[in-house]
Amino acid sequence: MRATRLGVAVTLLGCALGGCGGVDAREGAAARAAARFEASLRAPDAARGCAALAPGTLGELERSAGQPCAKALPEAEIPLSTGVRHVDVYGRQARVVTDRDTLFLSSFPDGWKITAAGCTPRPEKPYQCQIKGS
Asked: Pairing between strand 84-90 and 125-132?
């Protein structure tokens, strides 16, 4: 009996530290991060949207556009959505499907960050994304 309790305690601790618990909370956090990113695209100051990008995505956007993110992000013409349809979370990765876009996110110490946006599915091929990390 004591060994069973110890096993359960170790499993629960492992889940808490490893992030396997609270799927609903992680899905909600990813959906909110995607919604904040898209709201920032409607704002006149693109700096908030740039702050929502994962470091690799930010760097790739600036390299490919040849200009700072604050100028490149509005020009990327990411589809503006009106609502989240579905969220999938797999460990530290998430996919947020909206009515007009699919966004991919990754969990960082300071929260969920956008790794790709403006993504459309292609049959039997990877998504085609307007912005993505390297």
From this structure: unpaired
